[in-house]
Amino acid sequence: MSDQQTLIFAHRGIPIRFPENSLAGFQYTIDQGADGIEFDVHLTKDRIPIIMHDEKIDRTTDGSGFIKDYQWSELKKFKLADGQSVPSLAEFLQVVENKPIRLNLEFKTDLFHYEGIEKIVMAMVKRTELAYPIIYSSFYLNSLRNCYQIDPDGQYCFLTAKYLHNAEHFMRINHLAGLHLKHYQKIPHTIERIWTVDDPAKQRKLFKKKVAALFTNDFQSANERRLAFK
């Protein structure tokens, strides 16, 4: 438990108001003072990092097929639900540069490991002026190991829905700064960020326990509940 209040990360922006992982949604979270943004990154066929959760574009755009099979010039022609284009990481970084918001970039590499994605992404981030050190996360541990080889001083967090036994040892040998968990485990001396928490009662429990952070699809409602625990 920490003496500091729980941080609230806007999960893929604010999907209850804007299409998930959209520039308009990200801009709204910044304008409304969210603590942080969580977003997901893939690589196109021509190795351009783009922001989308799924490996396929079917659910969130008017197109179909795998991201990895499209050139960026082709992919950006497809539209999200409100007519916006799929954002590239470069476009996103322009929006968040020098803004007072924390970032959690998830490498979506657990189904397809895009070779070299970590090096490409981290080089782009390094060239961007950010208010806080970026958090890199993934369900795919090898991506985080690759990140550590590139920059041993970065913040790398493992995503899992499973209960972790001997978590402190696991974190130490994998050079992890924290764990992003489906359920709070109360691991000693460990940063735990919990996903994806939209249930008001569960949010209140986590605020009371002062967990490091939670991810939610409606950061504004979560923030109103958090006020009771200040």
UniProtKB/TrEMBL annotation:
Q: Which Gene3D superfamilies match?
A: Phosphatidylinositol (PI) phosphodiesterase
* Matching PROSITE patterns: GP_PDE (PS51704)
InterPro entries, A to Z: GP_PDE_dom (IPR030395), PLC-like_Pdiesterase_TIM-brl (IPR017946)
GO biological process annotations for this chain's record? lipid metabolic process
| Highest taxon of the lineage | Bacteria
Q: Which positions are tagged coiled coil? A: none
Q: Which PANTHER family match?
A: GLYCEROPHOSPHODIESTER PHOSPHODIESTERASE, CYTOPLASMIC (PTHR46211:SF1), GLYCEROPHOSPHORYL DIESTER PHOSPHODIESTERASE (PTHR46211)
> What GO MF terms are annotated?
phosphoric diester hydrolase activity
The name under which this protein is listed is: Glycerophosphodiester phosphodiesterase
Q: Can you give the residue ranges of the GP-PDE domain?
A: 6-230
Natural source organism? Oenococcus sicerae
